[in-house]
Amino acid sequence: MAQFLFEADLHGLLKLDTPIPNAPPARWQRKAKESGPGPSPVGVSPMKPANRSHSSSKTPSKTPGKSGSKIQSTPTKPGGDRYIPNRSTMQMEMANFLLTKENDPAEDSPTKKEQQKAWAVNLNGFDVEEAKILRLSGKPQNAPEGYQNNLKVLYSQKMTPGSSRKTNRYIPSNPDRILDAPEIRNDYYLNLIDWSSQNFLAVALDNSVYLWNHATGEIIQLLQMDHPDVYISSVSWIKEGNYLAVGTSSAEVQLWDIQQQKRLRNMTSHCARVGTLSWNSYILSSGARNGHIHHHDVRVAEHHVATLAGHTQEVCGLKWSLDGRYLASGGNDNLVNVWPCTQGGGGDFAPIQTFTQHQGAVKAVAWCPWQTNVLATGGGTSDRHIRIWNVCSGACLSTVDTHSQVCSILWSTNYKELISGHGFAQNQLVIWKYPTMAKVAELQGHTARILNLTMSPDGTTVASAAADETLRLWRCFEMDPMKKKEKEKANCAKSSIIHQSIR
């Protein structure tokens, strides 16, 4: 075999124009030389016959630098034995620099070399002396530990809000503080706590109202009913936080000045206990046990300006929307009514929407703070559902079965979430993500059903009053410090616009 190859090479040297008949491709000749003695590969067909097109050519091409007997062949299959580099993995500019540098005869001093190395590390993140011209792996070379690119700001940008993923915040599972609430009435239909914009928490305990200053911890007894059989059935702060409305079981609505700790007026228009109250600027709305809702204009002597008769049983949920356009009411008749804003005057008023899907009493009503036409409602023991409504179209946007009595709902002002308070069977608070209504967290600790929820003015803390005669404060909506400072500047305290007009 070796002799045959030698003669073939000799023929190629003496007569280059004469092709060797049936000459195998160059790769098989190399294989024969490496394999040593043995049968000639010319007569062997490894998988299929050798490429016959080379023998029919009169002037075969020759590989530069090789003998004439070695004929270059083009593989019939893509890929073959040739390597075609991917230019995307090459550092062409770096390669040109290194090739040019090799042809530079100038010798640099050691000091200059160290300086150039430092420049290269600062600009490129690695030493060019150690860089490869062809980077076959396709992976960039790791920068030294602690390296910071000075031009990073030119190539960096924040992710868009839709694509950014926020890490889950920490929600404490235990209350931040627990307060005693002795003799609080275990009545589902009453609304016994409210938190003012001036950071006072009003709590109705049987026939008394107490104020707790969250900033200082001071406790003030604001009032106590004269008759022992009369109890407080509802409390509600005006937006500015300097006046507190109080509803009683004797069908009265009282108005108290907090700074002077003095009752300003006593409004009597109902014929049954007042279980719920809600403010809209100078209009105070009250819901009674007979199913009637009264509007009181606290600026004038004739305070009773309108009556809404859309419920057949006790009104236990009442809330004005933040823009003052709608009033939502829920009752023991399982109905939810949405009323338009009225600016006084007699006559009959009809709701613009009536929702009948709940199968239990609706006490929990809450308006979304960033979508003023979205309302959340929750049903009692026979229903146990939270429903989200669009009051303009009347459509039910979402429904979730909570598997327990819904006593109260609050929307977070810091996150797109809402929190609900529950009774039987777990007496827990649940945080829901909006609009997916996915459960974010459960807060447990009460040993009896939760009666009411209210939120601190900064939106970070939720207070829950339960039949176990305790108040628990949950810091479940803690804000980022920077956002907190911005919100505090925007929500600085303002003096009441009706301070001089209440009689």
Automatic annotation (TrEMBL):
Give the Low complexity compositional bias ranges.
Answer: 35-46, 56-70
Instruction: Name the segments for region: Disordered.
Output: 15-86
Which Pfam families does the annotation name? Answer: WD40_CDC20-Fz
Which UniProt keyword terms apply here?
A: Cell cycle, Cell division, Mitosis, Repeat, Ubl conjugation pathway, WD repeat
Q: Which GO terms describe its biological process?
A: anaphase-promoting complex-dependent catabolic process; cell division; positive regulation of anaphase-promoting complex-dependent catabolic process
The pathway entry for this protein reads as: Protein modification; protein ubiquitination
GO molecular function, one example?
anaphase-promoting complex binding
Q: Which PROSITE patterns does UniProt cross-reference here?
A: WD_REPEATS_2, WD_REPEATS_REGION
Q: Where is the CDC20/Fizzy WD40 domain?
A: 179-474
Q: Which GO terms describe its cellular component?
A: anaphase-promoting complex
SUPFAM superfamilies per the UniProt record, alphabetical: WD40 repeat-like (SSF50978)
| Family (UniProt) | Belongs to the WD repeat CDC20/Fizzy family.
State the protein's purpose: Substrate-specific adapter of the anaphase promoting complex/cyclosome (APC/C) complex that confers substrate specificity by binding to substrates and targeting them to the APC/C complex for ubiquitination and degradation. Recognizes and binds the destruction box (D box) on protein substrates. Involved in the metaphase/anaphase transition of cell cycle. Is regulated by MAD2L1: in metaphase the MAD2L1-CDC20-APC/C ternary complex is inactive and in anaphase the CDC20-APC/C binary complex is active in degrading substrates.
According to UniProt, the name of this protein is Cell division cycle protein 20 homolog
